[in-house]
Amino acid sequence: SLPDLDLLRDPEDELLSARLMEAVQARLGRAPLGARRCSRLLMPAQLLAQVRTELLRLACSEPCGLRGALLDLCVERGKACHDVGHIAVDPAVVPTFQLTLVLRLDSRLWPKIQGLFSSGPAFAPLKLSTGFRVIKKKLYSSEQLLVEEC
């Protein structure tokens, strides 16, 4: 629950999460979504806040908190999932868990942009949907994967 999350908040994780969200936005700014194609993906403020909150929640039970995370960033387009990048939250810390953040393109834009993924001129920024999925995998345990759909 929200009050319990407030009790577990680590000020260092708060700062790290802000920097992590900046790194995520930078990666999305140069996302490879097709063969030799890059586009600028825009992350709505609501999505940014939701992702940040979810990543903090998933990190609060970890030995090193958010510092021990490896983040794989993916964008789902149709049935395909495109790798956008990998971020070690704190490269000086041995990772204890891996988070895979799967973002989705705003489906209302798909008819307008489907031709843009073939070869051709550069195109305008694309907006992401507010829905996302996070998959957490502990790197020091044989526990099952935890999949959160938001």
How would you sum up this structure, described in words?
Helix 2 crosses helix 3. 29% of the residues lie in helices and 35% in strands. Strands 3, 4, 5, 6, 7 and 8 form a six-stranded mixed β-sheet that branches. A two-stranded antiparallel ribbon has the order 1-2. The radius of gyration is 16 Å and the shape is globular. It is an alpha/beta fold and 150 residues long. The protein has a single domain, classed as RTP801-like (Ribosomal Protein L22, Chain A, Alpha-Beta Complex), CATH 3.90.470. The mean pLDDT is 79.
Outline the fold blueprint.
Elements: H1 2-8, H2 11-28, E1 31-34, E2 37-39, E3 41-42, H3 45-59, E4 69-77, E5 80-88, E6 97-105, H4 110-113, E7 126-138, E8 146-149
Helix pairs in contact: 2-3
In a nutshell, what does this entry contain?
The chain is 29% helix and 35% strand.
Q: What would the keywords be for this entry?
A:
150 residues, Ribosomal Protein L22, Chain A, two-stranded antiparallel sheet, 4 helices, globular, apoptosis, DNA damage-inducible transcript 4 protein, 14-3-3 protein binding
CATH class descriptor name: Alpha Beta
**Main sheet overview:** 6 strands, mixed
Overall helicity: 25-40%
Question: Can you name the CATH architecture?
Answer: Alpha-Beta Complex
Low-confidence parts, pLDDT < 50 over ≥5 residues?
none
Could you name the CATH topology?
Ribosomal Protein L22, Chain A
**Ends distance:** 16 Å
Q: What Rg is obtained from the alpha carbons, in whole angstroms?
A: 16 Å
CATH homology superfamily name = RTP801-like
Structural class: alpha/beta
The number of helical segments is: 4
Compressed to H and E, one letter per element, the order equals HHEEEHEEEHEE
The fraction of residues assigned to DSSP E strands is 35-45%
**What's the shape?**
globular
Number of individual domains: 1
Number of DSSP strand runs: 8
Average pLDDT for all residues = 79
